[in-house]
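Input record (one chain):
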Amino acid sequence: MKSWFHTRATHVTDHPTLQAAKLLHPKHAHTLETRTLILPLVLSSTASFSATDTARCCRDHRAFGSESPPAVERPSETPVFSSVHAHATKAETRDPLSGTYGNNASVCNSDEENGGSSANSTASAAGAFGAAPPAVEDISRQAQILQELSRKVINMGELRRLASQGIPDGAGIRATVWKLLLGYLPADRSLWPSELAKKRSQYKSFKEELLMNPWFDKTPLRGFLSRSEISHGEHPLSLGKSSIWNQFFQETEIMEQIDRDVMRTHPDIHFFSGDSTFAKSNQEALRNILIVFAKLNPGIRYVQGMNEILAPLFYIFKNDPNEENAAFAEADTFFCFVELLSGFRDNFVQQLDNSVVGIRATITRLSMLLKEHDEELWRHLEMTTKVNPQFYAFRWITLLLTQEFNFADSLIIWDTLMSDPDGPQETLLRVCCAMLVIVRKRLLAGDFTSNLKLLQNYPPTNISHLLYVANKMRLR
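The corresponding structure, as predicted from the sequence alone:
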């Protein structure tokens, strides 16, 4: 599998729907390149961290110099899943919020036990599972959020404050709050019907126009190139940027990558995986969204791993108890996906890797944040044991921690990311820094191999405590 697409987009701004979709950063639109993020999705519990897996975590030597982490064997006693921790057994394929897991409260395996510090933190992971009885504070917060949502004009500051503590799962609250926090719904409730109708109609138009390959004369995607569209002398092996053949093969490769990634999205969750009609329809929705996004963003296109960011949004919106909202979950998810990714888009652009806004700069900011809050730990990791933050933080940042925590816990983390007035990028860096601080004793006692293994397979952690520590960093 190729790790990169090397073709520069030459027609980034010429599509009539680009501006309407608000997808591209204006100052970068003319220089963007496509890229692919390779990530380890499902690995055997006994598999070694091979050179291929190294490339998956760090993409390419050109992205981060010639450094790459040496082979590190994964612990054989800990099965590794796409995004579910070991406390869900390997044989189970249950939906994370359905209540079929039972009481799955995260066990704090960190150095800093909860103590009294979590009293002001977010709801525990158990609160996200239907089987666990909701805590009194969750019920109170749910009532407060519902009261805020019932206002004619919602106070977004107050809603952000309430959501930052964790959104209780139930009554479709998270679906509505996420749409508000991402700016998909306006604060004025009277505008919701017209805004939803407009956006849903717009997405329908996107699908009608873009899910049919423009080079196929409106035939299905897997059709043939029209001879009338191929100029005389055009060679199928031409690598020219304007070559119709070159563009065709690039697009075909992207479509195939999307298909593969959608098929392996959360294989442990029935909602996304299996032979049921429901699962297949959900896979088709994910595929549609990613293809439309790629076509509207020729400078970024599709980056492998975007499916993992898309999945939580679609899951929440599709499970909205409001039947009309659930029916239009695909359209709503598309626009919210665009809004969420807009805060992180520079991390996906290869052309910007070495710029002040690219992924390398973002990882450097995480390193400096750790140095500010725990210089001893920073020095031990980066100076003594030589654990380059690029070896573990790249996946943390680009996939918004969806691969480091179980599905329910990642939703709680996302509540905080979306609600923080500082923006999701800054909040994400604080959470990543808190992840390091929480396991500091194990890291300080470890060498290169053990520390890399720990950070690439982050242990189950009390999410309430994690977010509490991250919030303390913001207040400092």
